[in-house]
Amino acid sequence: MAKQYETVIGLEVHVELSTKTKIFCGCSTAFGGAPNTHTCPVCTGMPGSLPVLNKQVLEYAIAVGLATECAITQYSKFDRKNYFYPDNPQNYQISQLYLPICRNGKVEIETEVGSKTIGIHEIHMEEDAGKLIHDEWEECSLVDYNRSGVPLIEIVSEPDMRSAQEVIAYLEKLRLTLQYLGVSDCKLQEGSMRADVNLSVREAGAKEFGTRTEMKNLNSFRAIKRAVENERERQIDLLEAGDEIIQETRRWDDNKGESYAMRSKEDAQDYRYFPDPDLVPIQVSDEWIVQIKERQPEMRAEKITRYKKEYDIPEYDIEIITSSKHMADIFEKTTVLCGQPKKAANWLMVETLRLLKENGMEPEDIRFSPENLAKLIGLTEEKVINSSVAKEVFEIMFDTNIDPQLYIEEKGLKTVNDEDALRRTIEAVIGANPQSVEDYRSGKEKAIGYLVGQTMKAMHGKAEPGMVNKLLKELL
Length: 476
Hints:
By secondary structure, the protein is of the alpha+beta class. It contains 15 helices and 16 strands. The strands form four sheets. A nine-stranded mixed sheet has the order 2-6-7-10-1-11-12-13-14. A three-stranded antiparallel sheet has the order 5-4-15, with no helix packed on it. It has a two-stranded antiparallel sheet with strand order 3-16. α2 (164-181) runs antiparallel to α3 (221-240) and α13 packs antiparallel against α14 (447-458). The longest helix is centred in the middle third of the chain and has 20 residues, at 221-240.
């Protein structure tokens, strides 16, 4: 009988915090920017420069700890992790080893067999390194220190996950929590959320963990899922062949769909950690924790409960709208402005989701404002424009956030409510289409659809379909 294997997975998730300035200096954290322009003596590791902790980083870390039910370490320190690499300007990274800011938390995830608790071992604060650009044409490596000193928190899970599905469920729950807290945009493609996967396999029922490998370079949920499944198979094949699994760091190549060894990783990698002598210990009072707790926003579960009470919209719509903090904000503000929750939900659920999918965008990338969506809903409800013109205007608004009212006036898209003009157009359409008129009069109800279409065409889409229908039936 073939052996059954169990996969054991733990994650180290690095999250770039959305503070305006870096963790230990006043340089900008904005993404992009010409190389080495968001830098100063502190984040480029100049001798004699001194770091000063950004208070916002600490508050964000505590907020995440509270949202994931961690114990907050009220006396905490920074440590130096020593390693020598060109993108690490001081030749050490300021991190937290001995007294991380948060410990022993948990995240509840939904799986195919019900809910499951994934333990969080710790959350610590640290600084990011710079970025190396390898120029193969010039045969040289360039370094950009703009990212050096950008604040990170590292969320280290317990080895509680058993499949790629559980890994994705955990990451999605974590990302949503962080986005709701407003501490990070969590854009994997920009590197503001990065996951390293520690994975081992063991025979089903075994108590001891197998030898683990660490997978790096994972910048999408799809890549993470594929990497987990690939590494599980690779380790099982090695065990089946009687070979040994080597503890190592592996790099995932998503284009090739395979990983390769980067470096062997001994358990006792000697980073020679010691407390950072330039930074004072952090003391967090009970009062401060209470203040941060009181400032915590409404999280998704609470939002879902409130929406069910307050808005008469389907549960499915509530699930989708609240799955993005940005979309939920747009929905709520639009509803306040136009008083039409159903209409606001419909625009988000149908047209917005369609355009996001067509453009390969995330809900966080929505650019139109609640004010403009509310205006468009108002203009449609007041029959200033008909539904097909509204969709046309919405597409422009989705791209450029134009003011729909101004756009409609500029382009002359208002519905023609002049009954005499409409009657004259319909009479001309009836005169030009005797066959359709004959079909309708001999009982073919569908023939009127063609006549409505011809009338709308003659009116350049600016007539109200209901009114066209009514007048056509009268004249026929």
